[in-house]
Design goal:
alpha+beta; 5-stranded mixed β-sheet; extended; binds glycyl-adenosine-5'-phosphate
Length: about 600
């Protein structure tokens, strides 16, 4: 069976996530909120398993790391000192035609011909001109001149005048230039033989102004292979949005370009100049609307770690190097959230600030990069799909001496999962300066006092969950109840991460002994793992339902369990493996130990 294309694959993953309760759009019944997601019953289990495993590896299994849980609402002084108030901004650009907003650095370089239109004028007569036309046409009805009068109504009035006065003026096409020419041809004919004041009033009404003009210039990029007429169509739409009903465009100037980011890649329309947009959400503490009550929703969890450094150092009595870990929500008003949960406006981070002596920084950067790669392999993301990008000097924060991005091959492209950065002593020094409180470390051995440096592995919970689902999604062929091959959707989660660890199935739901035994097994396993009891439908269907949500083990209670066929098999069940679909017979009493070992 051929593998689905990456776009198809992503569509299938998004649909499965909704269908089986991993991820829903936030506020969906009200039309949804862009860039915000809710995790359903299975999503929340997966997310918790990931966070628990990170916490286990980073905090519980180490002597040199302690945890904390800081507040989300953050004092503005913290984010001022960290540089976020001034500098946590993305450059954004708007499409001048659709007002769609983009991050400036996401606009691809494009080549083609730029068509520049300096202005446009309306081919439609002004309201006064239309009134004069209606009078001259001598229609039976009272002329209805309003903003809804169409181009063809206006032209019909002109044609009626020409017909009544035996003027040979040909009907225009729908093109604005042709309509303008039609009225300009009609005008001298009327003025040659005026019968009332309305001929002169039409002349005045077709002058510029009161005919509308838009003096804004506008540029369109026509890419190789596209027709030049596209420029005109796009420019007309632009001027229509600015109130011209039938824009007549002057001759554009043309210029060839080979590398430009100034145009909307979707429609070729000009973009505005880039301008900074601060990504932080601001709110107000308490009832006062005083500027002093401003607080921010934190854009990263890291800052509360730096701000609590001194307290935690004192209470934990750790020696350098040591780390402070935190998992929690962060908020960024992303310009265009996209790729499902990949870029969201509310997300969770798993961050470690690992403090050290200055001379240890570069070595620890390497150490943590390797540790983090191992972590991803241990949750089921193969090394071959992980890539380490050394962030080039010019893209690195000015205070960082080295940064790696750990990237994953998502179906929508290779993208960042986590950043591992050597941030020097920048953050602690900034907070020390701004708060006036010493954030130094006293080395008992050397009797030196200094601001520690820090290496920060900063991972995204939501991005890792998405990577886990993308990595786990697979389709294979398996026999149905009648032995006919069918497509099976399987989430091949690492058992450690799977939301439900074990499905328990009595072979028949109307056999009270099978049901009782199955329920007893559920109670036996529940203290150790998440278990799902299912008695409805054919056994094959029940396996498929669990395969689709990634449950690694399935237990079936059958007549052999009851000892009906062979007394030696009493109190044994079949244990089915999700991936190989192989079944083995195991004793019920051994189940907790066997499964716990496979889930460790
Ligand atoms: N304290 C450093 C820091 O916050 P970052 O590279 O901006 O660094 C770290 O963010 C990680 O947080 C990213 O690698 C990503 O996994 C996650 N992340 C950042 N912005 C995100 C967003 N808008 N949606 C989902 N995850 C995001």
């Amino acid at each position: 069976m051929s593998a689905p294309s990456d776009t198809q694959r992503m569509e299938k993953i998004v649909s499965l996530c909704k269908r089986r309760g991993f991820v829903f759009q936030s506020s969906e019944i009200y039309g949804g909120l862009n860039g915000l997601w809710d995790y359903g019953p299975l999503g929340v289990e997966l997310k918790r398993n990931l966070k628990n495993y990170w916490w286990r590896v980073i905090v519980h299994e180490r002597d040199d790391v302690v945890g904390m849980d800081g507040s989300i609402l953050t004092h503005p002084a913290v984010l001022k000192a960290s540089g976020h108030v001034e500098g946590f901004a993305d450059l954004m650009v708007d499409c001048r035609l659709t007002n769609e907003r983009f991050k400036a650095d996401q606009i691809p370089f494009q080549e083609g011909t730029i068509f520049t239109y300096e202005s446009a004028r309306d081919a439609m007569p002004s309201d006064d001109g239309l009134l004069a036309l209606a009078q001259l046409a001598e229609t039976d009805q009272e002329p209805q001149i309003n903003k809804d009068i169409s181009m063809s109504d206006a032209v019909s009035l002109g044609l009626r005048i020409a017909q009544r006065r035996n003027l040979f003026i040909s009907a225009p096409t729908n093109e604005p230039e042709s309509v303008e020419q039609f009225f300009l041809d009609l005008l001298p004919e009327l003025l040659r033989n005026p019968k009332s004041e309305w001929e002169e009033r039409f002349r005045l009404g077709y002058s510029i102004p009161p005919r509308r003009v838009c003096g804004d210039s506008f540029r369109v990029l026509v890419r190789p292979g596209e027709s030049d007429s596209r420029a005109k169509k796009t420019a007309r739409l632009f001027y229509q949005k600015r109130g011209l009903r039938l824009p007549v465009l002057p001759q554009p100037s043309k210029e060839r370009v080979s590398q430009t980011q100034e145009f909307n890649p979707e429609n070729g329309a000009e973009l505005t100049a880039p301008r900074p947009f601060n990504l932080m959400f601001q709110t107000q503490l308490g009832a006062s609307s005083d500027p002093s009550s401003i607080a921010y929703l934190r854009p990263e969890t890291a800052q509360s770690i730096f701000v609590q450094f001194k307290n935690i150092l004192e209470v934990s009595r750790k020696k350098l190097p040591f780390g402070i870990a935190q998992i929690g929500k962060a908020f960024r008003n992303e310009i265009n959230p996209r790729n499902f949960t990949f870029r969201s406006r509310e997300f969770e981070q798993m961050e470690l600030e690992y403090f050290c002596r200055p001379e240890q920084g570069m070595e620890l950067l390497e150490y943590w990069k390797e540790e983090r790669l191992t972590f991803y392999e241990n949750i089921g993301i193969p090394r071959s799909k992980l890539h380490v990008l050394t962030v080039p000097d010019e893209e690195r924060a000015f205070y960082s001496k080295g940064t790696y991005d750990i990237e994953y091959d998502f179906p929508f492209g290779r993208q960042e999962l986590e950043g591992v950065a050597y941030r020097t002593d920048y953050d602690l020094s900034q907070h020390q300066k701004a708060s006036g409180k010493a954030l130094e470390y006293f080395d008992e051995e050397t009797k030196q006092r200094f601001v520690p440096h820090v290496v920060e592995p900063s991972a995204g919970v939501d991005r890792t969950v998405l990577a886990l689902i993308c990595e786990a999604y697979s389709e294979d062929q398996a026999p149905d109840e009648k032995g006919k091959m069918e497509t099976r959707v399987v989430l091949r989660f690492h058992p450690r991460l799977a939301p439900i660890k074990c499905g328990v199935f009595p072979l028949l739901k109307n056999n009270s002994q099978l049901v009782a035994k199955a329920k007893m097994i559920v109670e036996l396993l529940r203290p150790h793992m998440t278990v799902f009891y299912d008695e409805s439908g054919a056994i094959g269907r029940r396996y498929r339902r669990q395969d689709e949500i990634g449950t690694p083990f399935g237990l079936t209670v059958d007549f052999e369990t009851l000892g009906e066929k062979d007394p030696a098999l009493r109190d044994t069940v079949t244990l089915r493996d999700r991936d190989s679909m192989k079944q083995e017979r195991v004793a019920i009493q051994d189940l907790p130990a066997i499964l716990r070992e496979r889930l460790a």
